[in-house]
Amino acid sequence: MDATPRKMISLISDAYTRFVVPVYQRPYSWDIKQCVQLWDDIVSCGRNKTRAHFTGSIVSIQDGSVSSQGVATLLLIDGQQRTATMTLLLIALARYAATHPQERLEFSREEILASGYLTNQFRTGNDHYKLTLSKGDDPTLRSLINNLEDPSAPIVDDSPRLLENLDFFQNRINAIADVNVVWEGVRRIEVVSIALTQGQDNPQVIFESMNSTGKDLAPADLIRNFVLMNYPMATQAETYRIYWRPMETTLQATTYDQRFDDFIRAYLAVELAPESLDGRDIYHAFKRYVYSRGYHLGGRIQNLLLKMKRFAGYFASVTVGTEKDPQLRAAFGRLALIGATPMNPLLLSLYEAYDQKACSRDEFLGMLELLESYLLRRAICDCPERMLAGFAASLVARIDAVREEGGNCAQALLAMLLNESGTPRRFPSDAEFSHALKTRNAFDCAQVVFLITGLDTVSRTRELDLSNVHVERIMPADALKSEKWLPTLGDDPERTFELAVNNLGNLRLSTAGDTAESPAGWGPAAIAAHADDLAARALSIWQLPTLPEKVCEVYRSTRRAAPTDAASFELLFKEGVINPGDTLVSADPAYPGSANVTDMGTIVLDGDPDREAFTGPSAAYERLLSSLGATFYVADAWSRWTLGEGGPTLDKLRM
Fold it and tell me: CB within 8 A of 241, min separation 6: which ones?
């Protein structure tokens, strides 16, 4: 590694080199705030000619290739944003010089083009451009340079952020009294150029040290870099295209939203359950997950990406609206409108159970409707939301145990929710729900639009669009000042008004914003009666199902599944059907492997360097498939393991 102070403009203009932003880097993301800071630094430096100004580091590494035109490629590990923004400023200065030939400038369009700041002048194709950005940014940047060289060349508008920042610099240049100050500042800006040596320096370690505060990059950006840097430089672009880009497309995610970060958080919550991720550093949690599961070994990162792609599809169905089944899509939409984000890990886990045939479509739909009732009742009853993320992680782990043991996921979920009676995680009873509906300030409730819309919805398959709907009062907020409304409020009008004005019975949906003009037939008694009617309808729509106490008891504070005809692995071990030291052998010759049963009744794969202990055969077989490069997963591995070579399968033993 070689670290050298350099003038930034000198670094950019090194002959026969070009900078390329690797595919794992985020797109160009600086906004006006960062541009203002760079502009202020440059102007200050240009006015104070006694010193230079340091503006950070540029970290690069040669990819080992030199083109047929003799141009070497330097991958930008860190510094893309500064380099791209400085390029925009140079374009703006060249444009100004071209349109102000009468001014006495210390620079010219021709000098900027000929000095290697923007192009390798006598090279063609990719080698012509000094900087190649990633994703959708590069066509726009190249078109700006093409247009500078030939004003008839069209400008591509694929990257609005590049164009907005260029406009910012052009406006600032046009407004400054002496443009030469800007040119002087550009020439005096310094960076530390850190050149890594391929095969010796670790780009990921350097990258993390440059972004240790977590302010510059989102967790998803850091994770993408970490994953793709596990591949050789020659295969990073292909890996991004095959594995990572499809996830971004599936999630309809960009650098400028939180969707990918939300997906990563939900995915990790499923994988690490029952551990809660609240307040955790997602990037470092992801790294620990990769190392603890052995995904960093033997090229197994591909297996991780395959699994993440599958879960990205689940997440898109749950949160983005890509689900093809109309009833399921409507159910996901209703959950999103209520505010189901803390329960997203549970929804992903249940979707996986449905996708892998561990529950039927009707059971899955029933569980979604159950969660809708649970979350809406809690919202109306003002139950605290802060513990739901941890509760969701607990439910994921416990329902996963039910799946492992062949139990009924739908029954288990209901029992687990019912068992929280009397706790902050409770499923509000009919009495609590009805009382809240009739007495609370419904007007200020975040779910009131969904609630009233849902009460008017006949079909449960209907997808709700609440974007143009709002709730208004029938008796208006100024009723105490109205000669028409005041007589309806009785002998204690202020108290009667306070109890009625925000009551559910006084609310209605509106898209026009009008209010009732007359109190005819309407008043406190009518409001109370209407609230009673709406509460009764809500109880019939968002029901609280019941289960026999003996069934609930099975799932109370335990990982055991409901009684089934099939025994669990734990039970087989306790009863001596499977013993310490027994060998389990893969029954599929295409995926050979074996495992040993430990003294604790867990399963450890032969040859696993981490010797991770699995509590059931499905998780152990998934690890085996992953280690062998399989691109699929099995819903039930009981039929994939035999007890010893040629022995009975585990599913036969538990019958």
Answer: 23
DSSP sequence for 20-81: E--TTSPPP---HHHHHHHHHHHHHHHH-TTS-EEEEEEEEEEEEEE-TTSPEEEEEEE-HH
Contacts by 367-371 with C-beta closer than 8 Å and gap 24+?
Answer: 367/409, 367/410, 367/413, 368/328, 368/331, 368/332, 368/335, 369/331, 369/460, 370/410, 370/413, 370/414, 370/417, 370/545, 371/335, 371/340, 371/343, 371/346, 371/347
Q: What does the alpha-carbon distance between residue 535 and residue 541 come to, in Å, rounded to a whole number?
A: 10
pTM of the predicted model, to two decimals?
Answer: 0.71
Q: How far is CA 512 from the centre of its chain?
A: 36
- 321-339 pLDDT tens trace: 999 999 999 999 999 999 9
**Adjacent-strand bridge partners of 17:** 72
For 48-205, where are the E strands, in sequence order?
Answer: 53-66, 72-78, 131-132, 189-196
Q: Residues, the chain, total?
A: 655
Q: Which residue has the tokens 């208004």?
A: 472
* Amino acid (one-letter) located at 364: F
Asked whether the beta carbons of 641 and 586 are under 8 A apart, the reply is: yes
Pairing of strands 583-586, 641-643: antiparallel
pLDDT of residue 564: 44
- The two tokens of residue 156 are 């591509």
Name every residue whose Cβ is closer than 8 Å to that of residue 17 and which is 6 or more positions away in sequence: 71, 72, 73, 74, 130
Least confident of 61-65, 156-160, 315-319, 326-330: 61-65
Rounded CA-CA distance 642/582 in Å is: 10
